[in-house]
Amino acid sequence: MKKVLLSAALLLSSVAMFAQHEVGTLTIQPKAGLNIANVTKVDGKARVDFVGGAELEYQVDDIISLSGGLLYSRQGYKAKNIDAKWAPSYLNVPVLANVYPVEGLAVKLGVQPGFMIDKDKADEAKTFDLSIPVGLSYEYSNFVIDGRYNFGVTKVSKDISAKNSVFQITVGYKFEL
């Protein structure tokens, strides 16, 4: 994971870039898509489910913007050998730095606190999740396709050291405010 974060940081700092929107622009982007979610260190397979919400983005300068959002995210995993699954819902709050290497293309890196909203009283799962999202998005005529991988940092349970592992792809539309 350290290599991935270092590579993303180098990429963010070393490419020739220019912005998609004018400096000082604030946009909102409703979005919806799919999660391909799993949990590390568990004998499970990925499950596909819904993610949706909105993100605000502020263009800081010609090449960098900051964004923050609120996403409803279905995560978890399917057991491999039995017909069982763990399918929690989270409210995730991604806070990202976005760098534009070419017009329309953004490289993204940030932090994402998440809050489980459907915890069962008998469930030993933790209600707080922290992940590091790394991704790319491409914007054309205000339509945005975004792909990111969320590296889980915190354990999902008090009993095991498993962490969330989520690939997310969304489609959205940017409105200038």
TrEMBL record:
<dbReference type="InterPro" id="IPR027385">
    <property type="entry name" value="Beta-barrel_OMP"/>
</dbReference>
<feature type="signal peptide">
    <location>
        <begin position="1"/>
        <end position="19"/>
    </location>
</feature>
<protein>
    <recommendedName>
        <fullName>Outer membrane protein beta-barrel domain-containing protein</fullName>
    </recommendedName>
</protein>
<dbReference type="Pfam" id="PF13505">
    <property type="entry name" value="OMP_b-brl"/>
</dbReference>
<dbReference type="InterPro" id="IPR011250">
    <property type="entry name" value="OMP/PagP_B-barrel"/>
</dbReference>
<feature type="domain" description="Outer membrane protein beta-barrel">
    <location>
        <begin position="7"/>
        <end position="175"/>
    </location>
</feature>
<keyword id="KW-0732">Signal</keyword>
